[in-house]
């Protein structure tokens, strides 16, 4: 069991890149973390980390053993939880900022209320890491990424759109074609930092932009558009009321921006955990009442 503890400590150090940070997360002293890594290196006869005063880096052997340790712990955890029936233990979830603030925060809370024995940790970021490497049980993302031995659970799609305040279009003119966008102030969310993907009668096109505002919280981008700061690319549900009231108007309606597809990324071996399976099932049910109004499109993994 000491070996498993040492392996888990090594993986945590590799993820955080720092002995002190790993010690804080484990609730122990940095010297204990250092000792565990040294024991692991002695046991396997390899040097796992290059240590310096500024940072830690995996050695070539460390990179190779990192993959093997992840696989080993995955198989061990699968065996350990194969007979479990209670929803308990820890659950680490990573989710995008805007969608969580608008909807998924409530979804997480209702799951937690239903399963009080769960220790739930929610990390808000639009980054989409490999859950095998970052120690995350479930990653919610719209990023077009995929990873080996990671299951993708489709949840729903949601539309993005271009819109602007009438006052902005009066002063700067209304674009007629995606190629006209380059002459305008562009306000965009983190999903679309440099390129806006348009669909049209002549097919898809990707237009490079140089945003005057880039933010991973969509409501801030929508506020900037309301204030006449430029043309915004935002999830449609954030500006639905503005469109009805006329405070924002659609831009390039004949060239809609491609919808984004929301999915859950789960390391294959973690699906054996009851807590993870229950959480994924909860997501697939709850997403059907999402404010973007589209039914869940997923199937069971």
Describe this structure in words.
This protein has 301 residues and is of the alpha/beta class. It has three domains: 80 residues, Winged helix-like DNA-binding domain superfamily/Winged helix DNA-binding domain (Arc Repressor Mutant, subunit A), CATH 1.10.10; 100 residues, Periplasmic binding protein-like II (D-Maltodextrin-Binding Protein, domain 2); 91 residues, 3-Layer(aba) Sandwich (D-Maltodextrin-Binding Protein, domain 2), CATH 3.40.190.10. 39% of the residues lie in helices and 23% in strands. It has ten helices and 14 strands. The strands form four sheets. A five-stranded mixed beta sheet has the order 4-3-5-14-6, covered by helices on one side. It has a five-stranded mixed beta sheet with strand order 11-8-12-7-13. It has a two-stranded antiparallel sheet with strand order 1-2. Helix 1 crosses helix 3, helix 1 crosses helix 4 and helix 2 crosses helix 3. The longest helix is centred in the N-terminal third of the chain and has 22 residues. The two termini are 32 Å apart. The C terminus is likely disordered.
Short synopsis of the structure:
β1 (49-51) and β2 form a beta hairpin. Helices cover 39% and strands 23% of the residues.
């Amino acid at each position: 069991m000491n070996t498993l503890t040492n392996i888990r400590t090594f993986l945590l150090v590799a993820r955080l890149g720092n002995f002190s940070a790993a010690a804080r997360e484990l609730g122990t002293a940095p010297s204990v973390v250092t000792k565990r890594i040294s024991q692991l290196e002695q046991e396997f006869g390899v040097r796992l980390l290059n240590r310096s005063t500024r940072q830690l880096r995996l050695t070539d052997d460390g990179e190779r053993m990192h993959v093997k340790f992840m696989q080993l712990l995955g198989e061990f955890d699968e065996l350990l939880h194969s007979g479990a029936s209670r929803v308990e233990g820890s659950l680490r979830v990573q989710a995008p900022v805007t969608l969580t603030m608008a909807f998924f925060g409530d979804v997480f809370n209702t799951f937690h209320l239903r399963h009080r024995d769960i220790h739930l940790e929610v990390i808000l970021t639009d980054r989409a890491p490999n859950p095998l490497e970052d120690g995350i049980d479930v990653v919610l993302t719209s990023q077009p990424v995929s990873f080996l031995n990671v299951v993708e659970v489709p949840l729903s799609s949601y539309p993005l759109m271009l819109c602007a305040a009438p006052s902005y279009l009066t002063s700067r003119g209304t674009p007629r074609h995606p190629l006209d966008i380059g002459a305008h102030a562009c306000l965009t969310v983190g999903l679309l930092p440099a390129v806006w993907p348009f669909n049209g009668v002549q097919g898809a096109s990707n237009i490079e932009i140089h945003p005057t505002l880039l933010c991973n919280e969509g409501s801030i981008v929508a506020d900037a558009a309301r204030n006449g700061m430029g043309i915004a690319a935002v999830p449609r549900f954030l500006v639905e009321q503005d469109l009805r009231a006329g405070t924002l108007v659609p831009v390039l309606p004949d060239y809609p921006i491609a919808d984004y597809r929301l999915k859950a990324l789960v390391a294959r071996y973690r699906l054996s955990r009851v807590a993870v399976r229950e959480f994924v099932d909860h997501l697939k049910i709850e997403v059907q009442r999402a404010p973007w109004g589209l039914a869940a499109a997923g199937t069971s993994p």
